[in-house]
Amino acid sequence: MKRIKHLGNFLLACVMAVVCLICLGVCLFFRMDGELLAVGFITGVWAVTDFYEAFHKEPIEERVGGQGDERDVFLAMKSSRTAMGIFNKVLFLASVLSLWGFAKFDLAFLLPVGVTLSGAVLFLFLLLLGVNLYYEKRG
Predict the structure, then answer these.
(1) 61 closest CA partner among 5, 131, 15
(2) What are the φ and ψ backbone dihedral angles of 7, each rounded to 5 degrees?
(3) pLDDT for 22-68, tens place per residue?
(4) Where are the alpha helices (H) located in the chain, listed in sequence order?
(5) Which of 45, 6, 10, 44 minimizes the C-alpha distance to 27?
């Protein structure tokens, strides 16, 4: 029997397998619903993929650690930071535009969209702030 190499993927695969079985069981025994069938199929594929990764792949830190030099690590950090910055700006712009559209044109569906996007922007800001503070103290 193979050893579990990544416990996080194994636990997620177990949860997804349970969700898949519940969806397919409800679909089979109670009512045939296309949405439940689709969710069961998607979670089943997710479970199979995570089971494979749990037994065949090592954690990302071990895979990348031995292969990259300082320049590769720096480029990965710089590119991920740039991508995060672009994503934050696009998310903020979308939230401002949806709130502006609600205020200007009185389209009711834009208010929850704008509030949700603003909450996501706030969450990402607080997450980035927390990560920066963590690495400044321990880095």
Answers:
(1) 5
(2) -65, -35
(3) 999 999 898 888 899 999 999 999 999 999 988 887 666 666 666 77
(4) 7-29, 34-56, 60-65, 70-105, 110-138
(5) 44
Q: What does the domain layout of the chain look like in residue ranges? A: 7-62, 70-138
Instruction: Please give the structure tokens belonging to residue 70.
Output: 């300082």
Task: Confirm if 117 and 95 have CB atoms less than 8 A apart.
Answer: yes
The overall pTM is greater than 0.70: no
**Helix axes of 34-56 and 7-29: crossing angle, nearest 10 degrees:** 160
Measured CA to CA, the distance from residue 41 to residue 52 in angstroms comes to: 17
Per the prediction, the chain carries an average pLDDT of 90
The pair of structure tokens assigned to 5 is 């190499």
